[in-house]
Write a structure and sequence with these properties.
By secondary structure, the protein is of the alpha/beta class. The chain has one domain (about 5-95, about 105-250): 3-Layer(aba) Sandwich (Rossmann fold), CATH 3.40.50.720. The protein has helices at about 15-25, 40-50, 65-80, 110-140, 160-180, 200-205, 210-215, 225-235, and strands at about 5-10, 30-35, 55-60, 85-90, 140-145, 185-190, 245-250. The protein is globular and about 55 Å long. This is SDR family oxidoreductase. GO terms for molecular function: oxidoreductase activity. It comes from Vineibacter terrae.
């Protein structure tokens, strides 16, 4: 896979999947816009790209705000002259009211947490997509890859806002794909399972969570950010020229099973 002459924008590129994807695009010839709300992380990733001989520009911006979206898309066009690939990856944990756990049944979810999660996890993807499409069309088309989740395909106990946001991303991906398929824009999403990123690590520290999670994954381990980046890179590349509207699951086999106990025994 090569992206020579292409301009790729990655949001949430300061760590995890976004960082790995930004490095992957740059290593394969793309000019990369590294966007993240954390300016120090942006600077660090841009430094990694340039140290490896790649080309990158950094933009510190909030992907949950219209102004932040304008800064990212507009910055890509201003610095590199256009945009060919958008990876909507930004997501973060909202601040919680005092005493509230991140795990909450639907009736107990704080409305501010719900609104923030939807704003960043879904509305931010919509805003970036809407803002990017005219720029992609100017270049004759392009590719959008959204980071969704297996939590957008199936239910998790007590994280309803996250489930709803990621489900919305998956169907927004499909809608946008069919709307722009004949205009040269492909739109897909990757649905990661449990990936070793800063977002997951606090949960892995909870009593019993790590053992339960790893025990449920047929491959017996967390995914690596680079493994998710490889899926994103494929979907953005010409190798996926006939792929649009797809939600690609990459979860170590977690959702390939029914969840029922293993029926094999020694007896």
């Amino acid at each position: 896979m090569r992206f020579d002459g292409k301009v790729a924008l990655v949001s949430g590129a300061g760590s995890g999947i976004g960082r790995a994807t930004a490095l992957g695009f740059a290593a394969r010839g793309a000019k990369v816009v590294v966007a993240d709300i954390d300016a120090a992380k942006v600077e660090a990733v841009v430094g990694e790209v340039t140290a490896a001989g790649g080309i990158a520009a950094g933009i510190a911006a909030d992907a949950a705000s219209p102004a932040g979206i304008d800064a990212m898309i507009g910055g890509a066009v201003q610095v590199f002259g256009g945009l060919d690939i958008l990876h909507n990856n930004a997501f973060g944990q909202p601040a919680l009211p005092a005493g509230q756990s991140r795990l909450a049944l639907t009736a107990d979810i704080d409305e501010k947490v719900w609104l923030h999660t939807i704003e960043l996890g879904l509305t931010g993807v919509f805003r970036a997509t809407r803002r990017a499409i005219p720029e992609l069309l100017k270049r004759g088309g392009g590719a959008i890859v959204n980071t969704a989740s297996i939590s957008g395909l199936f239910a998790d106990y007590a994280i309803g806002a996250y489930n709803a946001a990621k489900a919305g991303v998956i169907n927004l991906t499909r809608v946008t794909a069919i709307e722009y398929a004949r205009r040269g824009i492909r739109v897909n999403c990757v649905c990661p399972g449990a990936i070793d990123t800063p977002l997951l690590r606090p949960s892995m520290a909870l009593p019993g969570f790590a053992d339960g999670t790893l025990g449920a994954i047929p491959m017996g381990r967390l995914g690596r950010p680079e493994e998710m980046a490889n899926v994103v890179l494929f979907l953005a590349s010409d190798l996926a020229s006939y792929v649009t509207g797809a939600a690609i699951v990459a979860d170590g086999g977690l959702t390939a099973q029914t969840g029922l106990p293993n029926r094999l025994s020694d007896g």
